[in-house]
Amino acid sequence: MTENYLPVLLQIVLAGGFAGATLLLSVLLGKSAKRNVIKDSAYECGMLPLSEGQPRFSVKFYVVAMLFVLFDIEVVFLYPGAVIYKDYLATFGVGIAWAALGFISILGVAFLYAWRKGVLNWKN
């Protein structure tokens, strides 16, 4: 049984050895430049940087982004069931419809909660 795992182990060892050898060679053969303030400063098309690199975003932006990802993933979970709904209905009966309606109702309650909290209101 262990002879079945030998090719996988050999591939892992070869990949790790190649990665380690490549990193070691880049350190040994690479040029090490002296660092100074000018070389470490940000380069913006020949212009001197005048402000911070990234503007600050409101927390509301991140909350809406997380809500979008959550609802998007939940819709992705609904899609396979919708594609083969007729097969499920023939096999399991109406119980599968109640499960899907329960899932959609939980989504609706979460959406209403977020709406009532004002998360989707951009004016605040």
Protein model, in words:
The protein is an all-alpha fold. It folds into two domains: 2-32; 59-117. It is built from five helices and no strands. The protein is flat, with a radius of gyration of 27 Å. The N and C termini lie far apart (64 Å). The model has no long low-confidence stretch (mean pLDDT 82).
In short:
The protein is mostly helical and 124 residues long. 71% of the residues lie in helices and 0% in strands. The relative contact order is 0.06.
Query: Please, what is the average pLDDT?
Result: 82
- Secondary structure: number of strands: 0
Listing every helix as H and every strand as E from the N terminus to the C terminus, the arrangement reads: HHHHH
Estimate the global geometry from the Cα principal axes. Answer: flat
Q: How big is the Rg?
A: 27 Å
Low-pLDDT segments: none
**How helix-rich are the residues, as a percent range?**
over 70%
Q: Could you list some keywords that capture this structure?
A:
mainly alpha; 124 residues; single chain
Would you spell out the secondary-structure blueprint of this structure?
Elements: H1 2-29, H2 37-40, H3 59-83, H4 85-92, H5 95-117
